[in-house]
TrEMBL record:
Protein name: Protein EARLY FLOWERING 4 domain-containing protein
Intracellular or extracellular location(s): Nucleus
Species of provenance: Phaseolus vulgaris (Kidney bean)
Family in the record: Belongs to the EARLY FLOWERING 4 family.
GO CC terms, sorted: nucleus
Keyword DNA-binding: no
PANTHER family from the UniProt entry: PROTEIN EARLY FLOWERING 4, PROTEIN ELF4-LIKE 4
Length: 108
């Protein structure tokens, strides 16, 4: 991800409308947090697989806590995506509402 907060919204780049930099900064931060969690999950899965292949009792017991952490992380990722969707939708609707109000004002 590029951390350049002056990016334009891809959907509006062609019509010259700049996206709200605060919205894109929040989206960027959320996606970075999700990616970090997914990277952690990948490492957990690799460790669980190694422990499973070893068939050592200690490693199998350790897998219980690793899988619990993995499940918790999945719930966090779902929550982050849900929050991201809600925040992005609200921001888009707010922007659309203000744009429509400006057009109506300009016509009068």
């Amino acid at each position: 991800m590029n951390s350049d907060s002056s990016r334009r919204c891809p959907a509006t780049e062609h019509d010259g409308v700049d996206a709200d930099p605060l919205v894109w900064a929040a989206v960027d931060e959320s996606l970075r947090e999700v990616q970090s969690m997914l990277d952690r999950n990948r490492r957990l899965i690799e460790e669980v697989n190694e422990n499973q292949q070893s068939r050592l009792r200690h490693n199998m017991v350790k897998n219980v806590s690793l899988i619990q952490e993995l499940n918790g992380n999945i719930a966090k990722v779902l929550s982050l995506y849900s929050d991201l969707n809600s925040n992005f939708s609200a921001s888009f609707q707010n922007h659309h509402h203000h744009s429509a109000a400006n057009v109506a004002r300009d016509k009068s």
